[in-house]
Design a protein that fits this description.
Chain B: Residues 1-21, 299-536, 611-683 are annotated as: Disordered. The complex is a heterodimer of chains A (155) and B (683). With 155 residues, chain A is an alpha+beta fold. Chain A has six helices and three strands. Chain A has helices at 14-20, 60-77, 82-93, 98-101, 105-125, 151-154, and strands at residues 28-35, 130-133, 142-148. A three-stranded antiparallel sheet of chain A has the order 1-3-2.
């Protein structure tokens, strides 16, 4: 039986794969989108409320924890701290050539976020048949949660 | 508003994440080429002709300073020109599963207490985040859109606004430098003005002087914008004229934000690393308490709808979801009935046999389309209510993802009467279909009914004796659901009235009713009759063998089903709808006329109808104005939307119409499936 380890395609291919070999990766049942929370402005924050579609799949606490951590990470990325200020000055002085060699603060935090999401998926969401997609792929507009079909129940 | 065939087929179909290739238009490059030419050319001439003398006679620092300023200007110019301004990738297909008709054009969010409208972008297929705008030149949605600058041939948005601003500032400074030092040169060579050096210097001064006025003006304008925390787009469109800007954080913070914030990330062209995960069932499940399970069963669809309304989340048929919540379902296409208990009680089995006609709700005709203001108001009102509390049936049903085939869709359709403007033509689905005072008063009653039907497990239907509405009573077991009904007895009673009338209207279709609905109606009737003046009609209704009692729940089932029958017969007529309320009304009326409501208890029903009609006209401003024929036949006021929507769903089903996303063959199949008569109602 093929595992996802051999399936290196993006997840939009997973469904095709599963159609071909039903013993493989679970089929995608539906997708839920966690929207942005704009109550505090245009800062990147996501709504922490557990969507009803996921209520049967994951603990409310767990989910809220995940989203809250993500929100904190994004707040850190957008923070007006000394690092971003120094970065800005340096960029000005070097006519922005520093961007060619150095990674911006935001990008660094984005990497952290990607790692966090990967880890959450591995530990918490994949065992529950869910998959979080990094919101950066959707322009930081939504967190896409893919719900996989639980064939053990639908028989 | 976009028509039927509008935004659904956006231009961004090509690449999911990138804009389609734009045609090469040389005229777009003229301003940027001219700007570059002037800037580089003039400065080069200055350096060649003026600077040698300046470095000798004044100081060697002068050319260095001018050179540094020039380099800074050029760097900012390049960044402003070539940097991605913050383009949003196009939303992928699965992010927007809703049918074109059902989604409103605007979605409102509250930012620091101020309502901000997010408009649906038909090209990019998402609701534009606040401050985002779609640039027609670049054909992209840009985050924090400022303006499209022809001099740099690029949009100015979140990512490159800083560089644009600095470019303006540095360019102004550079112009001042060049003009100033050129003036010094000319003043020292007053008697040598015929030399080439002087001539060139004077020419450069002229160019500099010429550009100084607009550039300095623009710089001053942007300094003001930055200090106010506004974008050019907002300033020019007068968004915050006389109002409060929710995006400002005070002058100092605004300036700091612009100049010192970390560089925002690019959204396009990112390296996508697919996660390598092995996702195999069996999956872990959170442990649900009994109450949770009950509640889940109850409001399975409702919760979905509410969440959907708040976040426009899209989900495919809740097949897995319903499977998750309940014990293994019987081998049926259960995804149609998300809220139904899988337990094999008599009622539930009957329920599951009931047709998923609620899909018609989805295609709520353009009850809303006429008065956009009214709709917006409705939307806001609804959203306010819905956000405040987990709204029951209407809201959830309208947004229930599976409402393609569920009663909820009926609700959505009817509620949409209060929804925002049609997003892409056709039926509309209010984002916040509040149950209160919706224009589709009767329809809302219908939707409530339909919704409550689906959400009523048989046990709950029989259990409660709540007062104001069958809905509320049904939902007493589940707190969040009790909200909207509790908002006003007038509303609920109003809705119950509405509920009643359609039922009366559907009396004429007794033979077509499925008996499975009876138990629900019966229990609902029990709850309703004590409070409603409909008792007579209720009693009368109960007298009918197959009659749907005054219970709300099956409202959604009966009428749509019946309407579906009619709709099937009159599909052609009903397909006309560019979602005008009048057409569905007329179509329905045409459909209704052959079957006289003889089975109505006329005496009991009429006052009811009149009362309801009165209430309907109070709220149904749009429909009553657009379809005068409605008044002649009150009972059909509510059903028409359903018939239309079912017709539409059928149409979409049959045609695979592009305007509607083809629904899963539930609508057609279920309608057909409901031909079988159900056992009669117990009296």
């Amino acid at each position: 039986m093929l595992t996802a380890a051999t399936n290196t395609q993006p997840f939009d291919m997973a469904e095709t794969h599963s159609l071909q070999d039903m013993r493989q990766q679970a089929a995608i049942a539906s997708k839920v989108f966690i929207q942005r929370d704009y109550t505090t402005g245009t800062m990147c924050q996501f709504q922490t409320k557990l969507p009803s579609d996921l209520e049967a799949r994951i603990d409310k606490q767990q989910f809220e924890e995940t989203v809250r951590t993500l929100n904190n990470l994004y707040a850190e990325a957008e923070k007006l701290g000394s690092q971003s200020f120094i970065e800005g000055c340096l960029a000005c002085l070097t006519a922005y050539t520093v961007f060619l060699c150095m990674e911006t603060h935001y990008e660094k935090v984005l990497k952290k976020i990607a790692k966090f999401i990967q880890e959450q998926n591995d530990k918490i969401y994949a065992p529950r048949g869910l998959l979080l997609t990094d919101p950066i792929e959707r322009g930081l507009r939504v967190i896409e949660v893919t719900i996989f079909e639980d064939r053990s129940l639908t028989r | 508003m976009p028509g039927f065939s509008g935004g659904g087929i956006g231009a961004g179909v090509g690449g999911p994440a990138s804009a389609p290739p734009r045609p090469f238009r040389p005229s777009r490059y003229v301003p940027v080429s001219a700007a570059t030419l002037f800037l580089v050319g003039s400065t080069t001439l200055f350096f060649c002709f003026t600077c040698p003398w300046l470095s000798e006679q004044i100081s060697f620092v002068v050319p260095i300073y001018v050179a540094v300023m020039f380099l800074f200007t050029l760097a900012n110019f390049c960044m402003a020109t070539f940097m991605d301004p913050g383009i949003f990738p196009r939303a992928e297909e699965d992010e927007d599963k809703e049918d074109d008709f059902r989604a409103p054009l605007y979605k409102t969010v509250e930012i620091k207490g101020i309502q901000v409208r997010m408009k649906w972008c038909s090209t990019c297929r998402f609701y534009r985040p606040p401050r985002c705008s779609h640039c027609s030149v670049c054909d992209n949605c840009v985050e924090d859109f400022d303006h499209h600058c022809p001099w740099v041939n690029n949009c100015i948005g979140r990512r490159n606004y800083r560089y644009f601003f600095l470019f303006l500032v540095s360019l102004t400074t550079h112009i001042i430098n060049v003009f100033g030092f050129g003036l010094v040169y000319v003043l020292h060579h007053r008697d040598e003005l015929d030399t080439p050096h002087s001539a060139v210097t004077m020419a450069v001064m002229c160019v500099a002087g010429l550009f100084f006025v607009p550039v300095a003006g623009l710089t001053g304008f942007h300094i003001v914008l930055v200090s106010r925390g506004r974008t050019t787009n907002e300033q020019v469109t007068g968004k915050f004229r006389g109002g409060v800007n929710p995006f400002t954080n005070g002058c100092m913070r605004n300036i700091t934000y612009v100049l010192c914030r970390s560089q925002a990330p690019r959204y396009l062209g990112r390296a996508h690393c697919p996660q390598e995960l092995d996702i195999q069932p069996p999956f872990l499940r959170p442990s649900l308490t009994e109450a949770q399970l009950e509640a889940k069963v109850l409001d399975n669809g409702i919760q979905n709808d509410r969440h959907r309304s708040q976040s426009k989340s899209s989900s495919d048929p809740i097949e897995s979801q319903s499977a998750d919540a309940e014990p293994p379902p019987p081998p049926k296409p259960d995804f149609r009935y998300p809220g139904l208990p899988r337990a094999d009680t008599e009622e539930s089995s009957l329920l599951t046999e009931a047709p998923p006609t609620p899909s018609m709700f989805k295609y709520r005709p353009a009850t809303n389309s006429p008065g956009r203001n009214h709709i917006t108001h409705q939307n806001k009102m609804i959203r306010g209510e819905s956000l405040g509390s987990p709204s029951p049936t209407i809201l959830q049903s309208s947004r229930h993802p599976s409402y393609r085939s569920e009663p909820s869709s009926l609700d959505g359709a009817t509620v949409v009467g209060g929804g925002a403007g049609v997003r892409r033509g056709g039926g509309d689905r209010g984002e916040g279909p509040g149950s209160s005072g919706l224009p589709a008063g009767g329809a809302s009653g219908y939707s409530l009914t339909g919704r409550s039907y689906t959400s009523y497990p048989s046990s709950l239907v029989l259990s409660t004796g709540s007062h104001s509405s069958s809905l509320r009573s049904a939902h007493t077991a589940h707190n969040p659901l009790a909200t909207l009904q509790s908002e006003g007895t007038t509303d609920t009673s109003y809705k119950s009235l509405a509920n009643q009338t359609p039922r009366n209207g559907s009396l004429s279709y007794d033979s077509l009713l499925t008996p499975s609905e009876s138990p629900e109606f019966e229990s609902a009737a029990h709850e309703l009759s004590p409070q409603k003046p409909f008792q007579p009609s209720g009693v009368m209704l109960r007298g009918q063998t197959e009659m749907v009692s005054p219970g709300c729940p099956l409202q959604g089932y009966t009428s749509p089903f019946l309407s579906a029958q009619i709709a099937q017969q009159r599909e052609g007529q009903l397909l006309q709808g560019s979602a005008t309320f009048s057409s569905p009304h007329r179509a329905y009326l045409r459909a209704v006329s052959p079957t006289p409501p003889s089975s109505f208890g006329p005496t009991e029903v009429h006052p009811l109808i009149h009362h309801r009609h009165h209430q309907d006209t109070r709220v149904l401003r749009t429909p009553s104005s657009s379809s005068p024929g409605v008044h002649s036949l009150d009972p059909p006021v509510s059903p028409p939307p359903r018939s239309l929507s079912l017709a539409k769903s059928q149409a979409s089903h049959t045609e695979g119409g592009h305007t509607h996303k083809p629904r899963p063959p539930v609508g057609g199949g279920t309608v057909g499936g409901h031909q079988a008569p159900l056992p009669p109602l117990p009296p």
